[in-house]
Each structure stands twice: as C-alpha cells, then as structure tokens.
Amino acid sequence: MRLxxxxxxxxxxxxxxxxxxxxxxxxxxxxxKTNVLNLIMIPSVHYEHRIADKSSIxxxxxxxxxxxxxxxxxxxxxxxxxxxxTKKNSDTLWGWYLSGGIAYKYDYEDVILDDLNMIIKVGxxxxxxxxxxxxxxxxSDNFIMDLGAGLVAFSDLHEYKRAPIEGEFRxxxxxxxxx
Length: 179
What we know:
By secondary structure, the protein is mainly β. It is built from one helix and eight strands, in the order H-E-E-E-E-E-E-E-E. It has a single domain, classed as Beta Barrel (Porin), CATH 2.40.160.
C-alpha cells in the first residue's frame, strides 16, 4: 500500500512543480532519452541537440538481439533533422514536430545467397530514409516525454541480388532529460 501512495505523491509533486516552473522557461540545448517501448529488449540512446529556434538534430542508436522463432540480431542508427511546428515555447524543445533523415540498419543474422543458394555473406547492411511525426512535452522542468511514429524505407547496400525497398514502421515513447 505504501508504494502506490508514494508513487502518487511523487506524480502530484512533479505535476505541481511542472506547472510552477513553466512560468520560468529557460533555453535548453539538448535532450538525452531512451525509448521505453523497447527498453528491456533493445536498449536505445537518443540525443537531440537544439540548433536554432524550433529546430534540432536527433542522433539515434540501438542494438538488439531477440529470439522468437529464429534469432534476430541487429544494429540501427539514424540522424534526423527535427522541426517543431508549434507556435509557443520555441526554446524548450516541446510541441508538435516533423522530422526526416537517414537511417542505417545492419542485420547480423541475415544471409546473402547466390544463384546456387550458396552463402556469399552473413550480415546485411541497409541504408534508408526516415520520416517521423510526434509530440514532445515536459513532465517537469527537465524531464520530457516524446511520443512519435514514423516510417523507414530501406535499400540494401550489398552488391549481389539486391532486394526491393523494405519498409519499417517505428513507434517512439521516449523518456528523457533536458539540459
């Protein structure tokens, strides 16, 4: 019974502090965050750096290894330009945003076969473009929540029997710290 009560009190105090501190908005340069949707399975690090009013650069890196039916083992990295389209709080890295950029994916377990089904290479590199939309808001003066969704269109980087463009849907529920 104590734990839910303590969590409730922390939540109330955080929300109260957030409302009081919103009157004292300061300029932030960066945000470090992680995606809580895949925190246990696929640790990720996202760094967002403010470059101008309502604009930032986002660097994303995560490495995953999961076994469902077969083993999946990959590395993802992306660089995105993010533009906040909200009219208020241009210095806070908060509000509705649109972003686009370049994504890289390397699948360690995928194999590339020749015409005789002989293995040419184990490991498949891909490069693509990413587009996202979302909303980032403050949980307190320094802590943020980033909710977004996006699409990535990947193309193979290897030279032999390139597959057609593949698409991936990506969700973001990031929690982070602004500084």
